Amino acid sequence: MRPPVFIVGPHRAGSTLWHNLIAMCPGMLRLAEPRFRGAPRQRDFRLFLARYLPGNDADPLVMAERCFSRVPTRGLEGAFWRFEGIPAVDKPELKRRVGERVGRSDRSLESVARIIIEELTVASGCARACVKFPLDVRHTARLFEWFPGCKVVHITRDPRGLAISKSNDPSGTALKVRRHPRFSWLLRKAALLHVIKEYQAAARVHQKLETMSDYHLFRYEDLLAEPEKTIRELCQFIGADFTPDMLQPEKGRHEHQPSSLTGKQQKAFDPEAAVRWQKVISPIDNSLIVTLTKSSMKRLGYDPEAHPIFQKKRFVANGQVQQAGTDPAEACS
Question: Is residue 266 scored above 70 in pLDDT?
Fold first, then answer.
């Protein structure tokens, strides 16, 4: 079994698309968000362990049974714990092996996380796992300690695109706005400021880890502007073979989130998805985000004025070229 691949980064950065692409690699198990280590005050997996594995006298088999039960439990709120599309979870042998290994371990968060992912991979008949957002981006360095030899794919996106998507997130901010319409302005501005804060934190993480050979930063705009080049770079980094099918992600398992602006589920590459936020962002919000993230964008190697995705958008708008390779299907967002 090979060390896993981890995707880290902010929500609404196209993470599902990146996840779908990596999951198309042969022998790769697709795993969602486990929240092993979350942001401050977040109910992460540590809360669950404190209750079901409080000390050396606790029965690790009971903990394992609860982990794989799919029963809503504090500390198991992430999509990971629903185990959708993973029939191996129902095998009694999986729970027994996890319980036995945890019993022989030091019972730390690190050990339990590693055992669960390794045993899920083996029980599913896969050679490797790809896990999306296993922890808060600030704890990214821990992944190299917990999983020696793992690959970390750090994804990012123009912070203005992130802010617009986050403030219109159907399952997040938009839901809060429907519940509390009188506070819609305040809720959307809070989402914007949250994105800025997280973007700045991600830039600091990148600055600390960028020289590591098992860490690589990938930009959403690069993927949509030059899919084949970016996917080949991704495959080379994670040590997987590139296949032409990866240029048509709709052929694989595509558990796409709906676009926050169109409401449609993304299926294929669409460069317009990277610039659609320009149509709805206000001049004030645009200026505020650029001002507060300018240095972070530089750290992340992102120049919004010079990026090819914006140049292509201008050409199409002027009627000079028809976007080559653009799929007319629903947009990625």
Answer: no
